[in-house]
Amino acid sequence: MASSSIKRSAWRSLSALIALVIGLALLAGGLAVWGGGQLTPKLGLDLEGGTEMVLEPQLAGNQQVSSGQIDQAVDIIRQRIDANGVSEAEISTQGGRNIVVSIPGSPTEEQLQAISKPSQLSFRAVFAQDFSALPETANPSGTPTSGGATGTPSSGATSTPAPTSSAPASSGATTTTPAPSASSTAANGVVPQALRAADSTPTTPASTPASGAASSSPATPAPSASTPAGTATTPAAPATQTPAQQAQAVEGQVTQSLTALGWQQAKATEAAKKVAAQYVALDCGTPGVLEKIVDDPEQPLATCGDDGATKYILGPVEIPGSDIADATSGFQAGPNGQQTSIVEVGLTFNSAGATKFAEVTKRLFALQGQTPRDQFAVVLDKSVITAPRAQAVINDGRASITGSFTVDSAKALAEQLKFGALPISFALQTQDNITPQLGAEQLQIGLLAGLVGLLLVVVYSLLQYRALGFVTVLSLVVASIISYLAVTVLGTTSGFRLTMAGVTGLIVAIGVTADSFIVYFERIRDEVRDGRPLVAAVETGWKRARRTIIAADAVNFIAAGVLYFLASSNVRGFAFTLGLTTLIDLAIVVLFTHPMVQLLARTNFFGQGHRWSGLDPERLGAKVGPRYRGRGQFGTGPRPGGPTPSGGTTIPGSTGSLTPGRAEA
């Protein structure tokens, strides 16, 4: 019964291995047909060639770039490129100023943006906002129709257009909007209430004119229903108002907002006058307008929304992107915990950022109804992603950003925020195709070296272990198939590319795998030499060899992990393939080699210790002491019809009779 149980266990292990191979093969084929992959491993820069890009820093005025900024940018760009796998890119500096990036293949526009985009995220208070450039659509209610809301606002959270001239409301403008309730959504919603989008449905107009405006006029609702969610509706400027009048109205509001932040009156007036002129002259519909904006984190900023139409005046940076501890992406969960169709980027602030965020949301929450001063803009690379209202005080240091995100763009943004923003902006100076550094000839030489090493291992196994050596050969073949399929699948799913260093890791793995077999086979031989039957020797030898094999593979895997995380460039490729093949080696020994030996031990050829089996007890010098043969007889051979030291049966040999004090041979 025990023998039958061992056989079933061996066949289950082999079946699991077959299922693994078939699964990998189907996955590789499916990715090649429907996933844009291929049936061969992707090659790295040194074997396939690729694209070389020179990135030039974009500086404003007399701004200078330091070597520390360049080094930091190189590290961040490398992290971004390697975020989805070991792509084996090469990154270096040129002249202490430019950055040279060489990547395999031809990059897409999205990949270029991911490499060179600064991804500077900041949080700024909104001082002024204008929707006058937005196109008109048929939705007189003004209810938001596009994405950007991070959740449903609590009841009463509505924006009331001020009955003043349509210049942006001055700092003294007030509204009669009822105070919003932060209880239901803030308590039960997954997204913090302080980043909830504003409801732009107009309510009863307020009666307080905006100070600093040239004249008063009846309230004018927002002309468009396409106002991005996450912002409040502000009346548009009439055509009769001059740019000077607009600048005057904005200047008064910005001055008051800056003094509320603790600025001195003279300094606030000077900064407000400058940013007001920039705001009036700003045309968000002009291509490339954001590139001309100088982003000083300590000064107010006139900029545009990501809709390409809405203009903002924002306060100084109150929470920089460096205060973000972690960033994730995915679909937003609703108040009941169910997943919605809204894509979000979740942020977690560090302790300093959480403290700042709590202070800001507390201040803005006290300004409820004073649109747009109760809004908090999320700014990415000078563009306002969303500007929600503060409808609660957040003390847990968590926030969520929604907008016109897709799943892929949200994931890319989360990765960029996680790794940090580039210290300066870069522009693509040149982009050239480069030829393989080593090419097909070197790859063929490397593969030939691997083939020679494999043949040497096969020859040694056959000479040393005879027929048992074929188990080694089959194990190496199965390990090679799994390694090939794994590298192919990883090339499509994780961007892994095989370089010459990676090929070296695969060649080294041949020795690692052969070493495991040698440890196992020698333990079996040791048990046979001690006189155990082969079936028992296989089980006992496996129990002892298993600990040694696992310990050796663990050491190899730890070494590969240390190399992968501490090294860079090609060394990481070597470490990755070494770690991958170490795991494959362990799976092969457990799921193939040991079950095969278990089954072979029960055949006549191996079980009877054939001299070409590699497990012949006589050739191994098995120890055979006096044995009780039954009926009062002892002998040095096996008992009649009993098993040999190798587990077979033999015809009785010489026997002896039991006499007092001695045993006759």
Question: TL;DR?
Answer:
This protein has 665 residues and is of the alpha+beta class. 43% of the residues lie in helices and 15% in strands.
Protein described:
The chain is an alpha+beta fold. The chain has 3 domains: 1-42 and 436-608, Up-down Bundle (Multidrug efflux transporter AcrB transmembrane fold); 50-118 and 427-434, Alpha-Beta Plaits (2-Layer Sandwich), CATH 3.30.70; 244-418, Gyrase A, domain 2, CATH 3.30.1360. Helices cover 43% and strands 15% of the residues. The chain has 16 helices and 16 strands. The protein has helices at residues 2-34, 45-48, 67-81, 109-116, 183-188, 243-260, 265-281, 351-365, 407-419, 439-465, 469-493, 500-529, 534-566, 570-600, 604-607, 617-620, and strands spanning 50-58, 90-94, 98-104, 121-130, 301-305, 311-320, 324-333, 339-349, 376-380, 383-386, 398-402, 425-434, 627-630, 633-635, 658-659, 662-663. The strands form 5 sheets. A 5-stranded mixed β-barrel has the order 4-6-5-10-9. The radius of gyration is 37 Å and the shape is elongated. The relative contact order is 0.13. Residues 133-238 and 637-665 have low confidence and may be disordered.
